[in-house]
Automatic annotation (TrEMBL):
Family indicated by similarity: Belongs to the HMBS family.
GO molecular function ontology, one term from the record: hydroxymethylbilane synthase activity
Keyword Transferase: yes
Modified residues (S-(dipyrrolylmethanemethyl)cysteine): C257
Biological source species: Leifsonia poae
Record's subunit section: Monomer.
Start and end residues of each Porphobilinogen deaminase N-terminal domain: 19-222
Necessary cofactors: dipyrromethane
Record-given protein name: Porphobilinogen deaminase
Free-text function comment from the UniProt entry: Tetrapolymerization of the monopyrrole PBG into the hydroxymethylbilane pre-uroporphyrinogen in several discrete steps.
Gene Ontology CC: cytoplasm
Amino acid sequence: MTGSVSRASGPSEQRDGVLRIGTRGSALAVAQTTAVAEQLAKATGNDVELITVTTHGDTSRESLSELGGTGVFATALRESLLAGECDIIVHSLKDLPTGDAPGLVIGAIPKRADARDTLCARDGLTVETLPEGARVGTGSPRRVAQLKSRRPDVEVVDIRGNVDTRLSRVADGDLDAVVLAAAGLGRLGRSDAVTEFFPLSQVPTAPGQGALALEVRAGDEKGHGAIATAVAAVDHATTRACATAERIVLAGLEAGCAAPIGATALVDDGLLFLTATVYRPDGTEQLTASHAATPDSMSRADLAAAARDVGERVVAELLGAGAAGLAPLGSAR
Ligand SMILES: NCc1[nH]cc(CCC(=O)O)c1CC(=O)O
């Protein structure tokens, strides 16, 4: 039996058999939360209600680095969850700070979408074929450094705003291209705008990119209640392990989501691989570390142990090679 998915118009009371999911109000957030809601309705038979929460990160026009990067999107959602106004909140994992949120736990990380970055350029252009001095929009220090390392001549324009606003700056002729996550474009049905997919092996993306995190009040993930059953049904073991390994790099370098760091993990043929790169913000230098571990089994506990193992080895190697001197890392909060 599949439950139904609806959108609440205002604050909503707790009712039996109904899961209330809090989401940011942007088109991307609503699209990805709706997809999660449908997955939850199908897996549990519960009705699912979407509750929109407006956050400072949505309304502010400041750049991501001015906002401080980490956490701007998460705080209002978390307050709403702690206040009991909803039962589960959905974040883009890459926007979620690595620090503890008192009273909350990540109850599920569903199967990840495409973790790659893309170029969305005019006239089918790619990083290689962009004209000399082309104007490329991104607000992410990692993407700036990665672009500059390949095309030092490119003029990077700091942009903010939702995916459609960013794409419109290319359509309007103001920018030659923007760099955007494949996952977000896919969720919005805008993959048609992509002119180049960057291989993860050359362009590692933000820790957790392409993955979502379902946060619940601590304790609600345990036992056989409706919330515990729901999050257990959509948690994806290998995605959780990969995202955990990538986020250990962020935490270990004491970096925030605005730091120039790329990390990418994958599970293949029984091995967990993790590669991470720290960039000098101008793209002239970078440090990469790559490690693999063999989990004893594909159980969540063994995968988690392997994720910690590779994560810690990658962090130690990067710090030992001088990563802290390469980039301003300390924007974690
Ligand atoms: N920081 C913005 C953001 N947060 C999540 C996504 C979509 C991709 C994802 O879920 O990882 C995006 C847009 C982008 O980076 O292009």
